[in-house]
Amino acid sequence: MFGFRLAAERKRLKLKQQQLADLLKVSRSAVGMIETDQSSLAAERLLELGSHGFDVLKVLTGEPGATAAGRLLNWELCLAISDRVDAWARSRDITLTPEKKAIVVKHLYLNFASQDRIDEVALSETLFMAA
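Request: output the structure for the sequence above.
Response:
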């Protein structure tokens, strides 16, 4: 699903796969694998696409950014959560699909945004359930 949304966003911007590959500094075939969910895209790379007109929230959630955000996103918190999810998965030798990771990060962000910090207990509980 993540890959489909990335492809849809690329097409909305009237970019060819090669142009997206150039932005990401990867091969065109790597973009094809990402768009078919055969490969993942690091959160940092997705965030970089935001500066090129990509609606990052739409790619992650399927909702237009203005709707999904509801208020300004704390990108540092979002990235910190993403990093923690990655570290947790690596430490347990677990591979989360991009879609599952996006759902987990979104859920955690929505829980932590009002506090503007990561709640360690809630983080652990959510990751345990996600596994």
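The chain has two domains: 2-61, 75-130.
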